[in-house]
Amino acid sequence: MEPRIQYARASDGVSIAFWTLGEGMPLVHTPFTFGHIQMEWQFPDIRRWYERLAEKRRLVRYDIRGTGLSQREAPEISLDALLLDLDAVVDRAGVERFALLGIGHSGVAAIVYAARHPERVSHLLLWHVYARASEWAPSSRLQATRALIDKDWETYTETVAHVAFGWAEGEQARRFAALIRESVTPEMAMLGQHLLNEVDVTAFLPQVTQPTLVLHRRQAPWLRVDVARNLASQIPDARLALLEGDSSTPYVGDTEAVLAAIDEFLGEGEEAAAGEKPPEPSAFRTVLFTDVEGSTALTQRLGDAKAQEVLREHERITRECLKAHGGSEVKTMGDGFMASFGSAARALECGVAIQRAFAERNASLPAQPEALEGAPPEGAASSAPTEAIRVRIGLNAGEPIAEDDPNGRGDLFGTAVIAAARIAAQAQGGEILVSNVVRELVAGKGFMFSGRGKTALRGFDDPVEAYEVRWEPPSAELRTGFDSPSAGAAGGSG
């Protein structure tokens, strides 16, 4: 059964077609050079490829702007525009963190996206991908093929199809040539060629921090094996899988070898995710909430796209702190997090580390009062990276109820959780408020508190004692607030 076609709207207004298939760890599949997410299902080999990838995970596939079922007229065809397409699809599909599979020419966009969004991309896979135009453009066969675009469109598409499938593939290549003609116009194909003739993403390769798998067939004619070797050598955590065959299309030839390499690589992340079990229903936990102060006003001032960039910075810093202090992310609410800890001291250390990290980030922004308040200097355009982020944090401890939410994800419920959220709502940006339970649990651990008196919490009959945690911003020598688990100690407890 073919998946249902859906649409996402990119931040510049372009509609992008996509579908999802399967359940489990998300895998986002970038387009082939040319694609049509509906017509592809008429090809048995392509259909089996997608169904096999979706057996163990949730597969997301989309058409880039100007092609397939996506909007054909677009204001811009550029690398940045292709990143907008990908961003729109994963947001619309509700995918927070995913593995990213870059195929052929679209692999350059996958590299840049992974480098820019380490908080969202868990694994990067690259099939027959290069980093700069000079690695593929000099091919005499490709030069001859490109010259046909505006002279003989049918011959061009037939040639591209045979290069992709192999010259021994007659009928299948002819059918794929027809799919290309349905997927894109000659004018759009020429625009794409101009972009690819100038692309160079080598500067992004050292910035890719995710585990990366570079896949390449040894005998493929249009991209040399040494291109794959060089690509893998410049990405810090990359592996190289050289496979036998001459087809640059993964679903032609020994497809099982390709799928086995992908399954083995992604299986490590899937096993780790499966091993992260939610706490027992009766487990005593410390619950931490974060919330970005003024997020609604931020969105109104900057617009959805730039405000989202700021919020993703909050997500990145918070996740790094959670990881460093043994916190379990329960869920994110867009402008805030809910996390749980088995140790109240670790939870409080994490809260202090988060505030220190944001204090250091904000201090590194341009020394302009307007920038720190979130508004650009007069006459200057708003820029998301110059926005200060002020986070309020609240903690409470107790025995929450662990259940799956309606989407099957582990969640925590109950009075202990509600109280933590209400306490966080009482804090100001840059503050950490805790309940008396948390204060008592960390007695003697080196934290300092100041009493805030009894605080009325919405939905609770009786006021509760709340305490502000006194923390110090990082010194000039301290570059991050979450390198050491002991970063939370700020003096004697009181």
Describe this structure in words.
The chain is of the alpha/beta class. It folds into two domains: 6-274, Rossmann fold (3-Layer(aba) Sandwich), CATH 3.40.50.1820; 278-488, Alpha-Beta Plaits (2-Layer Sandwich), CATH 3.30.70. Helix content is 37%, strand content 20%. It contains 15 helices and 17 strands. Strands 1-2-4-3-5-6-7-8 form an eight-stranded mixed beta sheet, sandwiched between helices. It has a seven-stranded mixed beta sheet with strand order 10-11-9-12-15-17-16, with helices on both faces. A hairpin with an 8-residue loop joins β16 (448-455) and β17. α5 (153-165) crosses α6 (171-183), α10 crosses α11 and α11 (304-324) crosses α12. The longest helix is centred in the middle third of the chain and has 21 residues, at 255-275. The radius of gyration is 26 Å and the shape is elongated. The N and C termini lie far apart (64 Å). 43% of the residues are buried. Residues 269-282, 368-384 and 475-494 have low confidence and may be disordered.
Spatial order of strands in the largest sheet? 1-2-4-3-5-6-7-8
Let me know the average pLDDT. 81
And the CATH topology of the largest domain?
Rossmann fold
Output the CATH class name of the largest domain.
Answer: Alpha Beta
Measured distance between first and last alpha carbons: 64 Å
- Classified in CATH, the superfamily of the largest domain is Alpha/Beta hydrolase fold, catalytic domain
Integer count of domains: 2
Structural class: alpha/beta
Poorly predicted residue ranges: 269-282, 368-384, 475-494
Strand content: 15-25%
The overall strand count is: 17
Helix content: 25-40%
CATH architecture of the largest domain: 3-Layer(aba) Sandwich
Alpha carbon gyration radius: 26 Å
Shape: elongated
* Largest sheet properties: 8 strands, mixed
